[in-house]
Amino acid sequence: MIVVSDTSILTNLAAIQHLSLLPQLYHQVIIPEAVYRELTDLYPPVPGGLEAQSADWLQVRAMTSLGIFERLRSEVRLDPGESEAITLALELKADLLLIDERRGREEANRLGLRIIGLLGILVEAKYRRLIVAVKPLLDAMISTSEFRVSPALYNQILDRVDEL
Q1: Does domain 3-117 correspond to CATH entry 3.40.50.1010?
Q2: pLDDT (tens digit, 9 = 90+) per residue, 11-40?
Q3: Can you give the pTM of this predicted structure?
Q4: Considering only CA atoms, which of 102, 92, 84 is closest in space to residue 7?
């Protein structure tokens, strides 16, 4: 299975000490160079930055379709990480793109990519019994990072996993 990820999935899972869910669910995750830079070029390091430099399940790849990338940057106005992640997912014919940002998700859907976000990852992890509960992790992401979720979606997710 070819899985490509954007930055926020990695940083949010790392912020709650659950980055290990990704290799448990997908074995290997590919990130574009822009995502790697977003993870590793900042000081102080962002959550997941140190892990990105040493994780054997995380592979950095260069995207080559500059036309797609430039259109995503200029017309759709996505950041470099999102633009490269979508471009790389298209180039690799990825089975799954891990992405959370609304505009990025909308464009990935429009381009025919299969996507999943943090909430879907947590739901899948619970179904596969990798975590006991979604609610404490979701609450931790909301309180420790910039992760935002509407009250309606929050309740919908907890209802879906029988935690409401």
Answers
A1: yes
A2: 999 999 999 999 999 999 999 999 999 999
A3: 0.94
A4: 84
